[in-house]
Structures are given as structure tokens and as C-alpha cells.
């Protein structure tokens, strides 16, 4: 049942003038802020707190520097909020009902598309009611853009929750320049084929002038699907998109733009005396172990947390590591907690951690420090500085910005990164210790190489990875996407 809409006063946030239009708009499922209860659980008094995930981390720096608007959901079901400004950004909230959250967000986005796009690590579910909701909600996001996009505005749609929006915008507003960026992988056609609505999704994305992906293989997968399921004729990753009468409406292009992080923010924090002191305090509080290993993830089955714990447990079991010398800190931030697969995962991970700690802890030492929390960026950087080895063992990941944050924070050019070859970041961080997380023996060997990495070798690797990230930060990512978007509109390479 549709729930009644609850209007709540929003005194903390200044309104945006009604009728205002924008030349640049970003659209994503979530706004960069979520509704929260002021003053509770570390929340400030504004009634808003930063929302989770790499997407927000990547786009917020750009949006604070432009005059554009950000359209998205504010994280509270059944609540209508007028457009407002926060943290230097104009925000245009889209309302989602309790039903929308269940069917469009938890259902189609996170129990159909998410597993389907991540190598079907968990089985995707296909429900027509979820799809109907996905279409309806995508139309609502499109309407919110249409209402406040200036003539000829550039609109940048983000991620898998909104794949129908480009086509909807194109239909209603052919004057717009439309970009789309997929933050997660795009599956090969052999897997994408399972989706009953595969044609509509491809058609939705082809409404954009430029469809951006994390890796070249994602862009290639998309174009292979366009060819296979829509019969599109693809030349040099471009399709001439036609209307019903066969007239070309625009040229849609697919290309990889690997996303990155706000290098300046992380570098500055890594040099701040209070953050450095906090890192030292973390080590002291843990009894100054020889080696601290660190995992930082949303609690998601794509992240390979089980595989990491298994490898660590076996290293303790066979005596290669000793709980007196080595501790694993696992930050697992709460995520999508009402989706069944995520509930099951949490139970499993927490059971495994309990088992490992019960078996290997001493009164002095804990094997795994498991933290089911989200932390502010200052604390994250302190954790990066406090840790000797970062473990990124994703089974599939669009990019993984944690890997890039870790190397950026290591201003001393030390520490080691164990990185899954199935994370997009592996394309750029080639000097990491690259692993296949399914190969537990290989993972154990890589962890031990990282733990024992000679200083000179660690510096050589870290220096090269840092250079890569420092030279390709998130500003460069957004600038290169937007430059390419501008170009595709005026160019026809046929
Ligand atoms: O990048 C993947 C992504 O789903 C983003 O779209 C999102 O902002 C982030 O992860 C966090 O996920 P959620 O919004 O479902 O909490």
C-alpha cells in the first residue's frame, strides 16, 4: 500500500527559491545527505548527515564547486522535503514511499540488478512488481530534472538505480545534454541475458549521449548487449540511436572513466597532527601489535569479507601468524539491512568473527576487531595510517575507492595493499599485491608477502601507486567525463 506522505518542517536548511533552473544537474538515487535525527548517535544539529558510498564521495567535491543542483532521495521514506541548500550544494529531494523503498530500492535495484551486475555472486530475483516500481520511480526522478533543468542544460545521471532516466529525459527534453555513469560493473551479455527487461534497460541507457563505465570491459559488455538485444549497429563504441521512424536522434557513446577520490582531502587529513596522533593511539590501544591488517567495506557479499576471514583464520590456525603479533581490524559499515541477503551475510560474518575470536583470542589479544559502524573520514584516515596491510578482497567491485584512499593516506610511502583483481582499482594500482580472492592459498601467500614486505620493496610499490592516484584524482575524473560529454554531442564519427 502507498503510505501517506508526511510533511515535516525543515527549519535547519535554507530553501532554494521556487522556479529556479539549473544549467548543470546531477541525478542519483541518494542525495549526498540523508535525513537523520539531530543530536542522536553523533549526528549534528542540521538534521542531515552524509550518506554512504563511493558515489557520494566522488561527486560531492565537484558539486560544492559548481552552481548546479543535485537531484536524489533524501533517505527518509514517506517524507516530502522542499529543495534546500546544504554544504554549499543545492539539493532537490525526490520523495520515495515505503513501497518504493521496498520494491524499487531494496527490490529491483538491490536484489535484482546488484547481484546480476556483480557476477551473480548471489542469485538475482526477478519480480514484475519490482520492475513496475523501478519504472515509476525512474519517471519521478526524470520529472524532477525536467522541472528544473534550464534550456540546453547538462544532466549527469548516476548509477544502476536510474538506468531508464536518460531515455525519459531525451523523450521529454531533446534539448538536454545527457550523460550517464555506471558506478558498478556492467555484466557480460551472457549474464545480462537473464534480465526479463534487458531491452528496456539498454534502451534507457542509450538515451544518453555518453554512457560512462569504470573499466573498458564494462563499456564493451554494454555495447555487446546493445548489439545482441537491440540489434544496434555499434562502431567504435558508438551507436546511432534512431526514433520510431528511423531518424537518427543522437549518437550514444560508451567509454571507460575510472573513478577516483578527493586526493587533496585525504592527503591533508593524513598530515594533520590530530589524525596522526589518533593513528598512534589506535596502535597503542590495540597493544602495539607488530602487524595491523585492515579491511574496510560496506557489509556486502560482493566484498569478499568471508574469504578474507577464512584466509586470516587459516594463517592463525597453521601458526603462520600469531594473535600476539597480528590483528585484523574489519570495519563493516551497515548497508541495505532490510534486504535478506544482507541480513544473512551479517549473521554469517558475525558468527565467523565470533568463532575466530573464541578460538584464537587471549586475555591480552584479539584476533579480529570487528566494527559494524560507519566512521567519519578523519577516523578512516587514522585507521589507514595505523595499519600495515590493507586487504581489499572483493569478488567483484566496480572500482573500490578504499584502495585508493589507503594509498593516498600513506604519505610515508610505506604499508602494503593486497588487492583483488576483480576490483576496478586493479587496472590502476598495478603495484598492489594482486590476488584472486577465491584462491585462499594464493590470498594467504599474498597476505604473508605483504606482512613481510621488505621496506625498500614496499616503498617502491607504494610510491608508484600513490603517483597513479595523485595524478588521477576525482576532479580529473569528472572533468574528463564532462569534457567527453560535450564533445559527443557535437561530433559524429560515422
Ligand atoms: O556505488 C554503488 C552504490 O550503490 C551507490 O549507488 C550508492 O550510493 C552506494 O553504493 C551505497 O549504497 P546504498 O545507497 O544502497 O546505501
Give the number of helices.
16
* CATH secondary-structure class of the largest domain: Alpha Beta
| Termini Cα gap | 50 Å
Looking at this structure, what is the CATH superfamily of the largest domain?
Glycogen Phosphorylase B
Instruction: Provide the number of structural domains.
Output: 2
User: In one word, what is the shape?
Assistant: globular
For the largest beta-sheet, the strand count, sense and barrel status come to: 10 strands, mixed
Question: How would you sum up this structure in a few lines?
Answer:
With 494 residues, the protein is α/β, with parallel strands linked by helices. 42% of the residues lie in helices and 20% in strands.
Task: Explain this structure.
The protein is built from 16 helices and 20 strands. Helix 10 crosses helix 14. The radius of gyration is 23 Å and the shape is globular. The chain folds into 2 domains: 22-259 and 476-493, Glycogen Phosphorylase B (Rossmann fold, 3-Layer(aba) Sandwich); 263-472, Glycogen Phosphorylase B (Rossmann fold). The protein starts with 5 loop residues before the first strand and ends with a helix. Helices cover 42% and strands 20% of the residues. The longest helix has 21 residues, at 128-148. It has 494 residues and is α/β, with parallel strands linked by helices. It has a 10-stranded mixed beta sheet with strand order 7-8-5-2-9-10-11-14-13-12, with helices on both faces. The structure holds 6-O-phosphono-beta-D-fructofuranose. 6-O-phosphono-beta-D-fructofuranose binds at residues 29-30, 52-56, 159, 183-184, 335-336. Residues 29-30, 52-56, 159, 183-184, 335-336 line the site of 6-O-phosphono-beta-D-fructofuranose.
Amino acid at each position: 500500500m502507498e503510505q501517506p506522505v508526511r510533511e515535516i518542517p525543515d527549519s535547519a536548511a535554507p530553501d532554494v527559491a521556487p522556479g529556479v533552473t539549473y544549467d548543470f544537474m546531477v541525478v542519483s538515487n541518494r542525495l549526498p545527505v540523508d535525513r537523520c535525527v539531530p543530536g542522536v548517535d553523533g549526528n549534528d544539529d542540521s538534521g542531515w548527515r552524509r550518506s554512504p558510498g563511493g558515489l557520494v564521495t566522488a561527486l560531492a567535491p565537484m558539486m560544492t564547486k559548481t552552481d548546479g543542483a543535485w537531484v536524489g532521495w533524501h533517505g527518509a521514506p514517506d517524507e516530502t522535503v522542499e529543495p534546500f541548500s546544504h554544504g554549499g550544494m543545492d539539493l532537490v529531494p525526490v520523495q520515495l514511499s515505503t513501497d518504493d523503498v521496498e520494491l524499487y530500492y531494496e527490490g529491483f535495484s538491490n536484489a535484482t540488478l546488484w547481484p546480476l551486475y556483480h557476477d551473480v555472486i548471489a542469485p538475482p530475483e526477478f519480480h514484475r512488481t519490482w520492475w513496475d516500481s523501478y519504472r515509476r520511480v525512474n519517471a519521478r526522478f526524470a520529472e524532477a530534472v525536467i522541472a528544473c533543468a534550464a534550456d540546453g542544460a547538462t544532466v549527469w545521471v548516476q548509477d544502476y538505480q536510474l538506468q531508464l532516466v536518460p531515455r525519459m529525459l531525451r523523450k521529454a527534453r531533446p534539448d538536454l545534454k545527457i550523460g550517464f555513469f555506471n558506478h558498478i560493473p556492467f555484466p557480460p551479455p551472457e549474464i545480462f541475458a537473464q534480465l526479463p527487461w534487458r531491452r528496456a534497460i539498454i534502451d534507457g541507457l542509450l538515451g544518453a549521449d555518453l554512457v560512462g563505465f569504470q573499466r573498458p570491459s564494462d563499456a564493451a559488455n554494454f555495447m555487446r548487449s546493445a548489439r545482441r538485444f537491440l540489434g544496434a549497429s555499434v562502431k567504435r563504441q558508438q551507436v546511432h540511436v534512431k526514433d520510431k521512424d528511423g531518424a537518427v536522434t543522437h549518437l550514444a557513446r560508451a567509454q571507460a572513466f575510472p573513478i577516483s577520490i578527493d586526493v587533496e582531502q585525504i592527503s591533508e587529513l593524513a598530515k594533520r597532527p590530530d589524525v596522526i596522533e589518533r593513528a598512534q593511539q589506535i596502535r597503542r590501544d590495540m597493544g602495539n601489535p607488530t602487524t595491523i591488517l585492515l579491511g574496510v567495506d560496506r557489509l556486502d557479499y560482493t566484498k569478499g569479507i568471508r574469504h578474507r576471514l577464512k584466509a586470516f583464520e587459516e594463517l592463525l590456525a597453521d601458526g603462520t601468524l600469531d594473535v600476539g603479533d597480528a590483528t585484523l581490524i574489519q570495519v563493516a559499515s551497515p548497508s541495505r539491512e532490510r534486504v535478506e541477503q544482507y541480513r544473512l551475510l551479517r549473521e554469517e560474518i558475525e558468527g565467523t568473527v565470533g568463532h575466530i575470536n573464541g578460538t584464537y583470542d587471549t586475555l591480552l589479544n584479539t584476533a579480529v576487531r570487528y566494527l559494524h559502524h560507519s566512521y567519519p573520514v578523519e577516523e578512516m584516515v587514522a585507521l589507514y595510517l595505523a595499519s600495515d596491510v590493507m586487504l581489499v578482497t572483493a569478488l567483484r567491485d566496480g572500482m573500490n575507492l578504499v584502495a585508493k584512499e589507503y594509498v593516498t593516506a600513506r604519505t610515508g610511502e610505506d604499508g602494503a595493499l593486497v588487492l583483488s583483481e576483480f576490483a576496478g582499482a586493479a587496472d590502476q594500482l598495478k603495484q598492489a599485491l594482486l590476488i584472486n580472492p577465491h584462491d585462499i592459498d594464493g590470498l594467504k601467500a599474498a597476505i604473508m608477502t605483504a606482512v613481510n614486505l621488505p621496506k625498500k620493496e614496499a616503498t617502491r610499490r607504494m610510491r608508484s601507486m600513490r603517483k597513479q592516484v595523485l595524478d588521477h584524482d576525482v576532479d580529473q575524473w569528472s572533468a574528463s567525463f564532462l569534457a567527453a560529454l560535450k564533445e559527443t554531442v557535437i561530433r559524429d564519427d560515422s
